[in-house]
Structure formats: C-alpha cells, structure tokens
C-alpha cells in the first residue's frame, strides 16, 4: 500500500516536472527568437543593411522603408519580451501579431513605400534581402511556437 | 483489427522514438542539415559561377580591342565587372587601324559613363555601336530584339530601370527603350546600347543640363574602341603587331585581348571552384564520420530496446522497417532544413555575392535549381539510411534474451 502511494507520488512528481519543463521550453521558444530577430531588425537597417544616401538633398524611398523596418523590429522585440511573462494562450496571440508585423515588414519595401530601383543599389542588394531573411525566420519560429503552445494548451 | 493496431503502432513508433530521444535526434538532424547545406550551397555557388562564365564567354565576340593610350585597364574592366567609364580617340585612327592585315571583321564602339540615370539609380555604361558593321552585340541582341535600332532609341541591359512607359531618363531627356536584355552576370547588365548616330544627341543632351560628357568637337568623331575579329590563320597578337607597324604612334595605343581576359577569369574561377569542392568534400567526410559515430554510439542503448520489441513479437523485418523510417525521416527533415537555410543565404543575397566576387555570377535556371534541391534531399536521405545500416546489422545479430540479460 505504502509502496503504491510512493509510486503514484513519484509518477505525479515526474509528470509535474515534465510539464514544467515543457512550459518553460515553449515559453523560451515563443520569446527568444522574437527578441533576437526583433533586435536584429532594429540594428541591421541602421548599420550594415542601411538604406542609400540622399540624392540631391532628397531622401530616397528606401530611407523611409529603413525607418519603418526599424520600428517594426522594435515591436517584434517587445512582443518577444512580453511573451516571457504571459500564459500560452496569450503567447499564441503575440506570435500571430509577430507574423502580422512581418507581413507588414515585407510589404513596406516592396509595395507600401518601396526602395531604389537599381539592382546594384545597397538597399536592394543588402537591406531588402536582410529584411526578407530575418522576416522569414520570425515567421517560421512564430508558426512553430503557435503549434507548440496550441498543443500544450489543449493538453492542459 | 489486431493487424491494424499493430501497423499503426509500427508506423508511429519511428516518429515516437525520434521525439522520445530529442538529444540524439537533434544531433543527427544537425549533422544531416550541415551536410545538405554544404552540398546544396556549394553546388549552387559553383553552378552560378559556371553559368556566369558561359554567359561572359558568349558576350565577348571579339578577338582584339584597340583602345586609346592608357585605357586598356578601363576597357578590360568594362568586359568583366568594373565601373562605367568614358574614353575615346578619333574616327581617323579607326579608319587607319582597319587597314591592317589579318582583320576579318572590325567594328567601332563608343563608351560613355552616365551620371546616375535618375534618383536612386546607379551609373550606367552607355555603349554606342554601329549596327552596320557590328558582330558582337547584334548576335546576342537578336534573340530578344529583331528590329533595327533607330536613332534616339536604346536597348537596355537587365539591371537598367526602365519606367513603365518604356523609357529611361538620362541627361534630362527620356529615351525610348525598344528591348531589355536578359541578365549576363557581367557589367553589360548595367549598360544601355545606342547606335553611333545617337552619340552626338547624347552629348548635346548632357551639355544642355551642364554635365557635358565630351567636348562638342568630338561628338561626331569620338570612338572608344575598334573591335576586331581576326581572319583565319592569324592570331590576335600578330594582328596587334601589324596594326603597330602601320604607324609608329599606334604603339602607344592600348591592345586588349578578350580571349586572355576570359582565360584569366576562368583560372580565378576554377581556383575558387576547386577550393569550394575541397571544402564541401571535407565537410562531407567529417559529417559522415560524425553521423556513423552517433549511430554507432546509439547501438548499445538500442540493443535492449530492440530485444524487448523482439520478445513482444516484432520480426527482424519490422525492426528494420522502424529503423529505416527513423533514418529516412531524419534524412528528409535534415535535407529540407539544409536546403532551406542555404536558399535563404544564396537567393536573396545573389546580387551582393556577385558584387563581392567580382566574377561573372549568374543565377542558374529554375529547373536546374529544383533538380539540385531534389538531389540534395535524396543524398541526405541516402546518407542517413546508410548510417543506420550499422545499427541494423548489429542489433539484428544476437538473441533477444541474451541481450536483455547483458550487464546483469
């Protein structure tokens, strides 16, 4: 009888530990990529993946795309930080917001504001690909995180 | 009913085994991903360089270029991946040069470097050519434009920004573009082609906006190069010597041998491709060793797992099927991951890669890219399956009961 109780206690403790580990893992998975890629989206357009310089005192379209991308990066970074302290269901919402922001990130240099037309210009050769690669990574990790959080929410 | 349950269990057992051992699965996935990444990245890189080289060879139709004094380097840069430039001598020199022995065909061209065409565009190389004598540009252009290039019209290279109304603004004037050429991976992609009669118009337009590209008196007689195709039985160096013999002042002219440039570029490209192949081979050798080591190290812990399954009634065939499913899944996922990561680096950044390499770099065709993608994933699956065979052979051998009692 005592051995049974001990066994049950051990099993329930193991399950609780496993669940806690999974919750922590999902939390980190939902937040760290957004923090890292959000920070890179803030830093890259202002440093190595910058826009082109002014032409005849006039700022080109890519300059405004660069500024908007930096803002979107900051929002994704904040979403990642908030994901560290909220429930799985809220994290799902935060990651959906990160995906929506990334769609906006793609639309800004391609449709909404635009960049320089020249294929060899720095904004087209470096800034746009950098934004696209970081955006794709944000979307991939956000989708995976949504899947993991949805699964663990259902189990709970 | 029992069969269905058994099949379902066997089908899911492989994926559950993978999920139940995240560290082992992660290590195997990482190795296969690196192998796929190196293979796909290296192959695409090599293929793009070879496509660029082939394209460059096709565009350099002349055997010899005679250019003004001290401009040979600028002319060479025009053929490879240099900056646009303006240089010229006069038509009377051209007429004399054409009299030399060993010339089968000769045609003149004028090179003018534009300022940035419009806001946010890079400088263009304006190339004036004579459609009547040309043997270099027309054969290439013919596949995309079969009309005659009228005065004031232009043919644009692949990277030139053509407005939606089919024009390009240069020197405050909109020039009509009659065709835009396919990418070549060379400096010609940033060029516009005009006929020689349009050069004076261009000079006048530049003067009108106070950015004169050459003095007025040269507008009708400026020529940058004489492109020569040598006659049979002559080589380019011999013809160059014959030209120098025509007039002592011709020894001062620049002589460029496009064949030599192609050979030099090819040598640089071959060296790069060889380094790349050695690097990819080294990664594959190390990767396969690591893969075999991870599989081999899992043999001992898996012996007991498979022995238990044998006692529960699983046949050797079923065990083999579980193992093969596991390794094929790892190969497939790792292969797809490797291809995806490499694609994220190679495709969006192709312009930057081309600019940094200073070598002809041209994206290979879509069917070729898809072919390499499929081949990479297949290779990843095969290598993972081959790695798992080692486990298969070792766990299949001893009797289940003895294995279970091992270590007791």
Please describe what this structure looks like.
Chain A: It comes from Bifidobacterium goeldii. Chain A: InterPro entries: DUF4418. Chain A: Pfam families: DUF4418 (PF14387). Chain A: The chain crosses the membrane at residues 28-48, 68-86, 98-120, 126-148. The complex is a heterodimer of chains A (156) and B (408). Chain A is 79% helix and 0% strand. Chain A has 4 helices and no strands. Chain B is an alpha+beta fold and 408 residues long. Chain B has 2 domains: 2-56 and 264-405, no CATH class; 64-256, no CATH class. Helix content of chain B is 56%, strand content 14%. The relative contact order of chain B is 0.18. Classes of the chains: A mainly alpha (156), B alpha+beta (408). Chains A and B meet through α4 of A and α10 of B.
Task: Please give a handful of descriptors for the protein shown.
heterodimer, A: 156 residues, mainly alpha, 4 helices, 79% helix, B: 408 residues, alpha+beta, 9-stranded mixed beta sheet, two-stranded antiparallel ribbon, 11 strands, 56% helix, elongated, membrane (chain A)
Describe this structure in a few short sentences:
The complex is a heterodimer of chains A (156) and B (408). Chain A has 156 residues and is mostly helical. Chain A has 4 helices and no strands.
Strand element count of chain B: 11
Shape of chain A: rod-shaped
Report the total helices of chain B. Answer: 12
- The helix/strand order of chain B is HHEHEHEEHEEEEHEEHEHHHHH
Major sheet summary line of chain B: 9 strands, mixed
Number of helices of chain A: 4
Considering residues with a beta carbon less than 8 A from a beta carbon on another chain, report the largest interface and each chain's count. A-B, 23 and 18 residues
Average predicted confidence as pLDDT of chain A: 89
By oligomeric state, this entry counts as heterodimer
- C-alpha-based Rg of chain A, rounded: 21 Å
Helix content of chain A: over 70%
Class from secondary-structure proportions of chain B = alpha+beta
Model regions low in confidence, pLDDT < 50 over at least 5 residues of chain B: none
Total strand count of chain A, please?
0
Instruction: Determine the mean pLDDT of chain B.
Output: 82
User: Between the first and last Cα atoms of chain A, what is the distance in angstroms?
Assistant: 30 Å
Low-confidence stretches of chain A: none
Query: Which structural category do the helix and sheet elements of chain A fall into?
Result: mainly alpha
What proportion of the residues of chain A form beta strands (DSSP E)?
A: under 5%
